[in-house]
Specification:
SH3 type barrels
Length: 69
């Protein structure tokens, strides 16, 4: 019998991980592991303007190091 745990992080939390900082957009259970869609913080606007979010990542729960207060 496998016991599923609740996700450690929630939507709209600001978190940090190797490579940056971002906001949790959502999570999904996949093969007994919570995967999170994280949108990284935007840097300075480039001279040609911005089209949308700079980077969205899919991270395993173990790859997120913690919450920024």
């Amino acid at each position: 019998m496998t016991v599923m745990t609740a996700p450690k992080f929630t939507k709209n939390q600001q978190v940090y991980f190797i490579g940056g900082v971002g906001i949790i957009l959502g999570c999904k259970l996949d093969s007994s592991t919570w995967n999170y869609t994280v949108e990284m913080e935007m840097g300075s606007e480039p001279p040609m303007g911005r089209v949308g979010a700079e980077t969205r990542l899919i991270l395993h729960e173990k790859d997120i190091q913690g919450v920024i207060n």
